[in-house]
Amino acid sequence: MSSRLEIRRTEISDGDNYAVEVEVVSAIGIPLELLVYRGDVFDHVASLRDLLTYPPSLELARSLGQEFHRAAAVRLVYKSPSEAREAGEHIESRLSTTRLQYDAAQPPDFGYNAVTVYP
Hints:
By secondary structure, the protein is of the alpha+beta class. It has one domain. It has three helices and six strands; from the N terminus they run ββββααββα. The protein has a three-stranded antiparallel beta sheet, with helices on one face. The longest helix has 25 residues.
């Protein structure tokens, strides 16, 4: 089964700054929390290892004493609209790559559960 992501990207003009918000709105067959934070600061899009290593919330990371955690949304602020747009496009591209890598790492689903019982 291949996974699916619904991603929403919003570009916002806020006076002298330009923001981009990227949110994983829904995920099927893959965790929703694909954006890695170091404390309160966005760090990168999750790798397969990150999905196994980092908890899916800041609260859980703090309770476990971990520096990194995963989340489903990020808001980044830049000085130009082109920087904000490029950052959003890059994050979306990395999310797609992570989804493809995740799918490739999953065992095949043959659509049935076969159990052989020997006497």
